[in-house]
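Run log, item B.
One chain of 98 residues. Sequence copied directly from the ordering sheet:
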Amino acid sequence: MRYTNAQRRQVDKEDVPLIELHIARLREAHAYFAASNPIWGEWPGDGAVWGTIRKRLGEADAGDWRVRVVLHIGAKLEVQVVPAPASAGKSDVCERTR
């Protein structure tokens, strides 16, 4: 997913395009793998997933970011935030400042 911000600040769901769909995709993938192997653990909950993403994005400096959320065995979340490559094109997301 992609996240663009003008300054470091608190992040709201409307700041992250399609966040609900991203979380739903993670939930469905977890359910698929957990159904065949209990090593995946319990789904941490949509709120916990959003909270982890929100915290990490709130730490990001101003910029255009590519965000990758990885759900590891045991339902451990990892949020990677790296600069969006130039090949990704210009972000069309409106930047809000508070």
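Observations after the first pass:
- Confidence is low (pLDDT under 50) at residues 94-98.
- The two ends are 23 Å apart (CA to CA).
Flagged for discussion on Thursday.
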